[in-house]
Structures are given as structure tokens and as C-alpha cells.
Amino acid sequence: MNRSPDGKDSALAARATGTSWRDTALRYYSLAKPRVLYGNVLTAAAGFLFASPGRIDWLLFLAVCLGTTLVIGSACVLNNVLDRDIDTLMARTKKRATVTGGIVARNALIYSAILGFGGMAILVAWTNLLVVAVGLGGFLAYVVLYGMLSKRLSIHGTLVGSISGAAPVLGGYLGASNAIDAGAVIAFLMMFVWQLPAFYSISIYRRDEYARAGVPVISVVRGIANTKVQILIYTALFVVVSLLPQVFGSTGWTYTAVMGALGAGWLVLGVRGLKSDDDNRWARHMFRYALVMMSAISLMLAVGPRLP
């Protein structure tokens, strides 16, 4: 005799077919690219604290971080929708919910709109016009200039994408200072330049995937040897820019000593890459070191103005 499943049986059945509320929530969560999201929000928080050497307005800090998080999440979701054709051809992206059908494009677009309007509403209501402008500009730069245009058409896609990647730290800084000054420019330039050796390194060990997907990254168009040289140049430029805060009186010697030592280590690794026999292995090491540098620069921007 058949019987209707009770609540427990329904939950088990839903879980078996991958349609439980938890599975659905995880799909939507992953669609916002959590690693990208948290990394960018970390820099936004660092920018705010860098511009707040004295008293910290914690409510404003929360508004800047939350609004920025939602706007970035919206851009990431929309980018996933636009990149479905490319994502099917790359190992690291072919399991995204927008590719597998776990989330249909219409629902993803609604999700992106909710995140975007919610984030912008918070920025408009509780921050200032400069932060709102940076948030909107960063969104458009990532989705339109990078995702829809330069990523698919030009070798300079990474340069364009770095503009949006540096927007969060600038937005955080402007949230606290409400002024474009030397500190704002330095913070923006640091995160802009940091992304080039980081993502050029990815382009080396993911070169075959990008080539198969028809994405004209530097390693595909100009070769690995040229990419290594570019990585070293931008690594050196990052080190120079990262040491500017003390020159402009924003930090003390502690900041400079820490960033100088870490920057020297990244430079040494970059030089070794010029003669590396295993390009993919070296590129992975460069990218991992880049993540260390991002964490370090975020921490030191936050605490540097408060240390000797």
C-alpha cells in the first residue's frame, strides 16, 4: 500500500534529488563567487580603516562593507550569466550553477538585481556620493567593460578588469574620508597593480583552458616568456607603490618594514621565474604569494597608521 511521505520523507527525497533548500541556497551562494567577494570586501574594509587613523565610525564602516559586498555579489552573479558559453569550456568553471542548469538564467538575473539594488540603496542611504559613484563605476567596469567587452576581445582585458578590482579599496577609503587625496590614489594603485602579476600568473597555468575557450589572455597571445617578464615588471611596480604610504605620512616604519620584506620576497620569486623549468608550478607559487600579499597589504593598511 502506498502512503504519502511525511515531512521527514519529503526532505530526504528533496535532498536526494538535489532540490533541498540547503542545496538551493548553496547554489545561489556559490554564484556570487565567495572567494572573489570576500577578497574584495577585505580590501574595502582595509581602505576604510586606512583613511580612519583616529576615531572609527563603525556604523559607517558596516554600511560601506555591506553595501559593497552586495554590489560586488551582484556583478559576479551577472558575470556568471554572461560567461556561460566560456564557462562550459573551462575545467574550473564548468560546474557553475549557471552552466549545469542548477540555476536558470532568469532566476540568476533576478538574484543579481536584488543584490545590486540592495547594495546601492545602502550606499546611497548611509555613505556619500563618492562611494556611490565608485560602487556604480566598479560594477559597470566589471560587467560591461571587462566581462562583455575586453575579456573576450583584447589582450588588455586584465588591465581593464583591474580597475573594477581596485574599486573596493577606493570605495572604502572614500567612505571614511569623503575626499580624493594622495591616500586614495595610493590605495587604488596598489590594488590595481597587484592584480596584474596575480592574474597573469593564473593565465600561465590555465593557459590551455583560456586558449580552448578563445579568451585572448596575455599568455595565449604573446606566449609564456613575455608573460613572465610582464609579471616581474608589475611585481616591481607593486613593491614601489606599496612603499609610498610612509612617504606621504600615512604610516610609520613598521608598515614599510613589513611590506618591504614581503615585497622583496615576491620580487625574488618573480626573478626565479625567468629561468624556471616548470612554468605551471612557478606560476602557481606566484599566485599563492600574491594572495599572501593581498592579505598583508589589507592588514597593514588597516593597522599601519596606528603603528610606529
The strand count comes to 0
CATH superfamily of the largest domain: UbiA prenyltransferase
Range of helix content: over 70%
| Largest sheet features | none
Give the topology string: H per helix, E per strand: HHHHHHHHHHHHHHHH
Helix and strand layout, with pairings?
Blueprint: H1 7-16, H2 21-31, H3 34-50, H4 58-82, H5 84-87, H6 97-100, H7 105-126, H8 129-153, H9 157-177, H10 182-205, H11 207-213, H12 218-221, H13 224-242, H14 244-247, H15 253-273, H16 279-303
Helix pairs in contact: 3-4, 3-9, 3-16, 4-7, 4-8, 4-9, 8-9, 9-10, 10-13, 10-16, 13-15, 15-16
Report on the architecture of this protein.
This protein has 308 residues and is mainly alpha-helical. The chain is built from 16 helices and no strands. The chain has helices at residues 7-16, 21-31, 34-50, 58-82, 84-87, 97-100, 105-126, 129-153, 157-177, 182-205, 207-213, 218-221, 224-242, 244-247, 253-273, 279-303. The model is unreliable at 1-18 (pLDDT under 50).
